[in-house]
Amino acid sequence: MVSKRQREARKRFKASHPELFPKPEQTPPKDPNKKTKKNFKRKKKVDPKSPGDATRPTKNGLRKHPLRVPGMKPGDSCFICKSKDHIAKLCPQKAQWEKNKICLLCRSRGHSLKNCFNKNDKTVDKKLCYNCGESGHSLDKCPQPLQEGGTKFATCFICKESGHLSKNCPQNTHGIYPKGGCCKICGGVTHLAKDCPNKGNRDSAAAGKPTHSYIISDERPRGQVTKFVSGDDLEDDFVAEDTYGGKKEKSTEPKANSASGMAVSDECKLKFLELKTKRNYRFIVFKIENQDVVVEKLGGPAETYEDFTASLPDNECRYAVYDFDFITDENCQKSKIFFIAWSPDTSKVRSKMVYASSKDRFKRELDGIQVELQATDPSEMSLDIVKARAL
Fold first, then answer.
1. What is the DSSP letter of 56?
2. Of all helices (H) and strands (E), which one includes residue 123?
3. Number of Cβ atoms within 10 Å of the Cβ of 267
């Protein structure tokens, strides 16, 4: 930091030696009438028909990246084969990818709606009202009152008939539950539990009851334990189950299913437990009889898979459990328990719906199932398919 004393000394030195500090010359003002020359560079002529050069500058002065693929951002890749040198539209495996697509019009596998053979101006209409049959607006914006549930001009993709949707089709056993299940209030498959028409009756009946129902377990004496048993993936489908120590009277009546009204007998649980732990049976066939799931047939340990398939009726639905033994690729002996829902196409529609709505709840009663298999034809549960699912 310069002090006041040093500044005064510099002033004295500058005054005594003026030749060392000449005054700077002033720059002359600019002449406004003088024109400046600009250096122009002649542009090279480019043939518009010639292919673009990656190294040639563009209009904006930017160069195209030599490794950039048209239609692909940096870091992206083909979502079919995960390659980074082309997009999915130009992928050589696109034909194989198209085979796994399902058409939204005819519901057949192998092509999309764009390449459907049944597509025409009448079948493909983006905005067709199912209520009045006019085009230009959808069902939710129809000005006319609903007639016949608002599906008078709708076409079902399952039975190809008009007047209803696929969720109300008698040939569709799953309804709006493609993976199985049903409404936990009334057991229907055409609506969710939040849209159930009997929801108000259930809420009014449950208003004067406690929020949790306590069930006395008939197992061996234990301390007080509270556990929550979940049903469907809904918020209020939980039941608190308390187990108290001491001896309790055993209840011989099976507990009914709250969703489908079906009850599971104690014999079903006992026989399945013997198959899982003691391996006394090779397979067990169950059937629904008088609103109750009972054991129909027991297969011994020496019986084969052909004996099991022969025990299933051709025109009736059944539940079955099969203990499958196999050898892995590492030459290890293993076994897996299969749960098979047998629902042939020739069975009655009512029977299909009852078995479909009760399947998930009945499967939860059998603790230890490893693989689930649904079959409507003997070819869908062949021994090769079972081996592939086991491995």
1. S
2. none
3. 13
- Answer yes or no: are the C-beta atoms of 265 and 256 closer than 8 Å: no
Q: How far apart are CA 175 and CA 163, in angstroms?
A: 16
Q: How far apart are CA 87 and CA 79, in angstroms?
A: 8
Q: Helices in 191-231 by DSSP H: which ranges?
A: 199-205
pLDDT band with cut points at 50, 70 and 90 for residue 296: very high
Indicate the helix (H) or strand (E) that contains 239: strand 238-243
Residue 178 φ then ψ, to 5°: -65, -25
CA 342 to chain centre: 24
Q: Do residues 358 and 262 lie in contact, with contact meaning Cβ atoms separated by under 8 Å?
A: yes
155 burial via Cβ count (<10 Å: 0-12, 13-18, 19+): middle
Q: For residue 364, what is the enclosing H or E element?
A: helix 349-365
pLDDT band at 319 (very low <50, low <70, confident <90, very high): very high
Distances (CA, A) of 197 to 75, 133, 154, 350, 382: 52, 27, 23, 21, 41
Q: Output the pTM of the full model.
A: 0.37
Position 143: which residue type? P
Nearest-angstrom CA–CA distance, 308 and 320: 9
The answer to whether residue 216 scores a pLDDT higher than 70 is no
Q: Is residue 241's pLDDT more than 70?
A: no
- Residues 278 and 252: beta-carbon distance below 8 Å: no
Tokens 């409507």 label which residue? 376
DSSP of 252-301, one letter per residue? -SPPBPTTT--EE-HHHHHHHHIIIII---SEEEEEE-SSEEEEEEEE-T
Q: Which residue has the tokens 């104690």?
A: 266
Query: Do the beta carbons of residue 167 and residue 178 sit within 8 Å?
Result: no
Give the helix/strand (H/E) hosting 15: helix 4-16
Q: Which residues 6+ apart lie within 8 Å of 4 measured at CB?
A: none
> Cα–Cα distance between 65 and 58 in angstroms, integer?
11
Question: Is residue 341 a contact partner of residue 358, using CB atoms and an 8 Å limit?
Answer: no
